[in-house]
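Final report, closing paragraph on structural work. Over the funding period we assembled a curated collection of sequence-structure pairs, and we close with a single example.
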Amino acid sequence: MDVVNVLVMAPILGRDLTWLTKVDERVRVLDANDAVPRRAAVGLAFQPTTDSQEVTDMLAQADVLLVGYPVPGNLAGRAPQLKWAHHTQAGVSNLVGTDLWNSSVPLTSSRGVVGAVPIAEYALAAAAYFARGLHEGTRQKAAGEFTREGYGGITLRGATMGIVGLGGIGKELARMSRALGMRVVATRRSISAPQSDVDGVDLVLPAEGILEVAAESDFLVVCSQLTPETRSFINAEVFAAMKPGAVLINVARGEEVDEDALLDALKEGRIGGAVLDVFDGELAGRPPRPELAESPHILLTPHISAGGEALFTEPIRQLFVDNLRRFLDGEPLLNIVDRERGY
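Its predicted structure, as stored:
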C-alpha cells in the first residue's frame, strides 16, 4: 500500500497528532479538527461547520476518516476514495442518519475501550451514594436540615448488581462489583440460554431475561447500546419488576429509559432512586427535562462518567493505532460496526 491519507475530525484527541504519523511512514495526516468545534455545554445544539473548501479538499483525498462527536452529516459523499471510518465513541447511534451510516464504507467504533474503568467506577459510586444514604445528606443540606433521620442504607457487600448489556463496560463493572463481595447478574444479547459464572458474573441471561435481572437487582445499571430494540426498553414493566428501594443507574444513552415511567416509579415509591449520567435528547442538544433535575430521588450528571480527558482519549488512540496497522497490512479490522444490529 502506498501513502494513506488519514483525515482527523476529532478534537477530543487533541491537537498533537504526531502519534499518528509515528505509526508508519506511509501515513499522511490531514488535520480538520478546527472544522469541528467541541460542544462546551450540555444542551448546546449546533451543526459543525464542515463546508469550507479546505475541508472539502481534504475529504476528496481521504482514505481513512477518524471522526468524533458531533458527526457532520455530509462526509461520505465528498470522500470518493474513503475506505474506512472510525468513530471515537463507543455508541454509534449518533451516526444513524448521516451519509456515513448510509454508505458502504466500513465503520469501526471504540466500543469496549472507551472509559470502561472510570464508567464502572462511576456506577459503583452511584450505588454507594444510595446504599450509604448520601442522597439523604444531599437532600437535608438543600433543605437546611441536619438530622440522623432517613439515612437507612445497606452494604454493597452481599447486595446484587444487575447489569443490562454485558459488554466492555459491563464486564469491568462486574469485576469491580464482585471484588466488593456483590452478587452479579446480567443480560447479554448474544446468548440464547442462561450461563453461570462467566466474565465475572454469577448469572447471565439472554436479553429477554431483563425482567428477571431487574427483579433480583438492588442496583440496575444500563450499559447497553442504543438500538431500535433498546429505545425506551427500561419501561414501566421493568420498574414494576424491580425491588422496592432498588436504584436505576444509566451510563448508556438517555433514550433507553422511558423517563415518564421512571418519574412515575419514583413518585409512587416503587423504586428508591436513580443516577443518570445521560438523558433523553442529550445528543440532539436538548437540556434535561426539569423534572429530572428537580426530583430529590435523582442524581443527574452531564455525561461525565467516562472520566478525565486522558482516561477517555488514550484507549481510543491505542485502538485506532492498532486498527491502522491492520489496515496498512491488509488484516481484518477490530470493532467493525454491524449496521443491522446498530453497534
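Residues 319 and 329 are 15 Å apart (CA to CA). The first strand starts at residue 4 and ends at 9. We thank the funder for supporting this effort.
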